[in-house]
Specification:
Helix content is 29%, strand content 25%. It is of the alpha+beta class and 174 residues long. Strands 1-2-3-6-5 form a five-stranded mixed barrel. It has a two-stranded antiparallel sheet with strand order 4-8. The chain is globular.
């Protein structure tokens, strides 16, 4: 009996899985109809027959709405994209069923803009400080937005310490 090395079998299985993986959803255009917080919003696709889509900006983490700078982050995103046409490039779904996507407004990456202006952090992974670390470092050095607040903490740490925001907590800061 011929035995294949386990590594070869695993490699073949991985290659087959990747080959059959669904291609990313195509890029689409739409109008921002509602901003929920500093990194979540609703977009009405240009095809008016389609329902509005709840989208979370990928690569960033904005303050929770009940956290210091949460309302300011939402206001900044609303001012920047509210009612405007954006290009949405979906990359997946999050645990809440929202579409994860990158946004472009007139060619500019909206998530990168939020981090650069100090309204969000670069989304961190276990091994690095995230894809927008240069923008975050610049905002921190210039004390832009939330980085001017003493003791500003990332939303992940805020949720760990305080739990999620209560519904209706939009007017409250901690």
């Amino acid at each position: 009996m011929l035995r294949r090395p386990a590594g070869l079998a695993l490699s073949l299985l991985l290659a087959a899985t990747l080959a059959s993986a669904a291609k990313p959803a195509p890029t689409w255009d739409g109008r921002v109809t509602h901003v929920s917080d500093g990194d979540s919003l609703w977009v009405q696709p240009a095809d008016a027959a389609l329902a509005p889509v709840e989208v979370r900006l990928v690569d960033i983490d904005a303050p929770e709405i009940c956290q210091a700078w949460g309302r300011e982050a939402r206001a900044a995103l609303q001012e920047r994209v509210g009612g405007r046409e954006v290009m949405v490039r979906p990359v997946g779904r999050d645990g809440f069923g929202r579409t994860l996507a990158r946004f472009r407004l007139e060619g500019e990456d909206v998530g990168a803009w939020l981090v650069q202006e100090g309204h969000a952090w670069s989304q961190r992974t276990r091994w690095n400080r995230g894809p927008l670390v240069k923008q975050e470092t610049q905002a921190r050095a210039l004390r832009r937005g939330l980085h001017q607040e003493p003791g500003a903490i990332a939303p992940k740490e805020f949720r760990r310490q305080h739990g999620p925001c209560e519904r209706g907590a939009a007017g409250r800061t901690q």
